[in-house]
Amino acid sequence: xxxxxxVILLIAAGVSAGAQAGTNEVPVxxxxxxxxxAVITVMDSGHHAIYKANISTRIRSGFAGMKKLDLEVGxxxxxxxxxxxxxxRPRDVLQFxxxxxxxxxxxxxxxxxxxxxxxxxxxxxxxxxxxx
Length: 132
Description:
There is one protein chain. The protein has 132 residues and is α/β, with parallel strands linked by helices. The protein has one domain (25-122): Immunoglobulin-like (Sandwich), CATH 2.60.40.1120. It has one helix and eight strands. A four-stranded mixed beta sheet has the order 1-5-2-8, with no helix packed on it. A hairpin with a 5-residue loop joins β3 (54-61) and β4. The termini are far apart.
C-alpha cells in the first residue's frame, strides 16, 4: 500500500513538472536569411533572468545595405530568446539590443566567426538617462 502511494505521488510530481516545463518555451523569431542562430539571455547585475525584456536587431542586406530587416522578440521567464535564420555573412556585425523598463544594453555577434552563438546581456540596475 505504501509503495503504491509513493509511485502515485512520483507520477503526479512528474506530470506537474512536465506541465510547468511547457510554459518556459524559448520565444523564437526567424530572419529567414541563413542557417545561423543566436540564443540570448537577458539578466540584471545580480545574474537574475529578466522576464519580458525586448531584444531587437536590424539586419542590412542588398546593394549598399539598402534592404533592412528589423526583428524584435521578448524573453521568457528564464530571460531567454532565440534568433534563427541569421545570415552566415552579414553586411555588418549584428547588434542585439535588450531593453527593459528604461534600461538597455547591446551585445555584438559576428556570425562569420560564431554561427551558433549563446550570448548574455547584462542590464544596468538603473535606467539610462537620456541625453538632452
